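Hi all, long-time lurker, first post. I run a small reading group and we've been trying to get comfortable going from sequence to structure in the token notation. Rather than ask abstract questions, I figured I'd post a concrete chain and ask someone more experienced to write out its structure so we can walk through it together at our next meeting. Sequence below, copied exactly:
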Amino acid sequence: MNSPWKGKAKATNQDYDDLRPTITYRHLLSNNLGVRDPLRVVALCDSDAFYAACERARLELNPSVPIVVQQWESLIAVSYPAREFGISRMDKIKDAKKKCPNLIAVHVATYKEGEMEPGYWKDIDTRTHKVSLDLYRRESNKIITMFKEALPTGEVEKASIDEAFIDFTRPVREQLLERYSYLAQVPADAPNGIDSPLPPPPLIKWDDLGTVLLPEGTDSAGEQSNIEVDGDATWHDVALSIAAELMRKIREDIHSKLGYTTSAGIARNKFLAKLCASYKKPNSQTILRNQAIPNYLHPLPFQKIRFLGGKLGDALAKEYDVSTVGDLLTVSLDEIQSKFGENALWVYEFLRGIDRTEVKEKSALFKSMLASKNLPKPITQPSDGHQWIRILAAELALRLNDARESMPTLWPKTIVLHARKGYETSRSKQATFPFVRNVTVDVIATAADKLWKELTGDAKTVNITSVQLAFTGLEKAEMGQKSIEGFFTTRDVQQTSLKRSREEDEPLVSPENTKLALPEFSYVEAVSFKCTRCRKTIVLREDQGTGGPNEVAQRLATLRSEHGDFHFAQDLANGNDGSVPVPRGSSSKRKKVEPKGIAKFFIKK
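-- Answer (accepted) --
Happy to help. Here is the structure in token form:
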């Protein structure tokens, strides 16, 4: 039975019943508790106005100088000094300079034909240049490396080019046992042995650790809150304070060595760490104690929280006549699942500060490298494509050589050229990429030019609006191989080609490429499948369509399985009880299948 009330009642203590868990010796001395570890500490570190900071450091400007980074006519980064003049990324460059006459505007570096590296040119034109983010990638990797070197037992997950999640749980546990050595042994008189609670924690000195969010007695509106939490320190607070010390030291090192300021959020999980990282920017860090979670979340507009905005947020606001997290807390799990499906459990938990996603370190080994250009003016003559191929080849050459500095035996197995007209499915050609001693623009462009000729054939005119050039199958040579040439040895079953569907008739490898001395690694990245039930073509997202063939195939298999689960859920929702779907070719009229539950808010139209 659905509740007749709207979500305006007060939140109570039972909505936050996991803020002061009993921490035992078993919790402290175990190493495999994962996301349910009551001593878990996660941080999100965000580089402040990163692109602008990179350009300021490159130009050796004073940190107080207002600077923006532009890409064509749009702003992609605004420094904090520039923001003081009311400038935002929504401004056009002309309007920004009106607000701040002394503003320094730097156009992002670009590639152009004839140049081996990107540069800061005066004659920038989207019709002849391609944006380069290489400087920012390099600087981002330097920051990630500093985190990994400072925390060899921690987990560092690169969330984006300017953000990283850090799981401090293991480094903090090591510090706890070092600083409070009496915790390493279970006392002989412990009533429950290893499951006995830890003794009371020591006093914590929060000075200079950052902004500490504490339990308060009033909410943002100033009225008395009925969420009452004991403010005494816990062992999790001790863990937070140690993580804050470690984070402060790393942030100071980043600033002194690289010149970048950062802001961090430190809490018990990824969701809360990201949420509080922006609490007091720039150049700050915020610690969210468990006891402070209710008062921190309670007044927040829930539609400002990631994943809770957009159509889902609008539906929640309309259904329950609510606007804040505190308003939604009064909606029971049964109620929200009855309206939005069983998967709405994550919404229920997010509102209570619960997030069980792991911090997963991403491999430094790239499976693919992609350089692409959406063309403002379509290529109409096949001969005009070679200009863009050289520009894309320059980017790939730079990125591969950069990567090989730290991984000298890294080499791509395949070079792939994609071309697309408008929003149509792209066509592609690929070939084995031959080993050479020195990777140059000429080497890559020569290989890509052959693919371009195969792709365009004898056509006199073309209409291409997007060109992509990629390396795939990037791997390192195994230890013990005498030379990188040994890396190209086939591995029987593992190199089975992925076949393109019969609807696409492009040859996988041209006859020219079969004459290469190196073995073939022929595959085409299948990124879609056609569902036999709804007859729709289901396609991987663009960012999922790159990588090695096994990786792409695994993603596609997962997508196929999820799509099958979707139909199964629909059968149950429609009362089919597992009945056999109408076979293809049946005269029965098919009804359009519409997603239900929370899934319908995440379906692309």
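A couple of things your group might point at:
The radius of gyration is 28 Å.
Confidence is low (pLDDT under 50) at residues 1-13, 218-230, 479-526, 575-590.
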